[in-house]
Write a sequence for this structure.
């Protein structure tokens, strides 16, 4: 993440936003598309997993500079531009991104260990996977003690950092903005029934915090 931040200084991102907004828009669409493609393929290979991590780091760097400009406030919530190829997904970018992050936070051999004795190839497709079987830690609603891997923890951290970046939109809004009254759209979507992982995610976080034992 430090490399991405040093390679993309704030001045360059703002210059891209002001001078070439279409390029920044296309870049964001392409990066989110990488997330969706990884979910569709169940993110089984190390190459796909590295693509997800790189995409995470890039969006984590770019999103604050989109949030800080009022002219871009609806960017993630608008339908794809008319110039997008026919038949392209018409789902707002925020929906595609948040739901893909949610899927990837319960991806066997990427952010969680495979369940039971199943190998990675035997695990269900990611879009059909029951994340209640992959809660991160023993505790509320989950009696098993899942096996842990440091790399899975690191990968979760990358995704969670991006998630927090998305949730941070409120701090870039003017103090008296009407948007404050309507609530944070990112949080509302992530915690809504549209996100089938909302409860396992909440349970995972609760169990991780409550079960933490400093070394």
């Amino acid at each position: 993440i430090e490399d991405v931040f040093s390679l993309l200084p704030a001045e360059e991102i703002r210059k891209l936003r002001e001078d070439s907004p279409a390029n920044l828009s296309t870049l964001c669409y392409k990066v989110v598309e990488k997330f969706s493609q990884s979910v569709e393929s169940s993110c089984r290979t190390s190459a796909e997993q590295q693509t997800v991590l790189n995409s995470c780091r890039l969006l984590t760097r770019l999103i604050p500079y989109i949030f800080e400009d009022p002219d871009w406030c609806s960017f993630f919530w608008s339908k794809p531009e008319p110039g997008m190829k026919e038949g392209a997904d018409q789902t707002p970018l925020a929906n595609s991104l948040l739901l893909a992050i949610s899927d990837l936070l319960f991806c066997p051999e990427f952010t969680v260990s495979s369940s039971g004795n199943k190998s990675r190839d035997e695990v269900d497709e990611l879009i059909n996977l029951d994340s209640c079987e992959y809660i991160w830690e023993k505790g509320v609603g989950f009696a098993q003690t899942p096996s842990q891997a440091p790399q899975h923890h690191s990968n979760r951290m990358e995704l969670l950092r991006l998630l927090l970046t998305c949730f941070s939109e409120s701090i870039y809004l003017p103090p008296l903005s009407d948007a404050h009254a309507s609530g944070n759209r990112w949080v509302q979507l992530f915690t809504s029934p549209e996100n089938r992982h909302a409860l396992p995610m909440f349970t995972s976080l609760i169990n991780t915090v409550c079960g933490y034992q400093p070394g």
Summary: The radius of gyration is 18 Å. The first helix runs from residue 2 to 7.
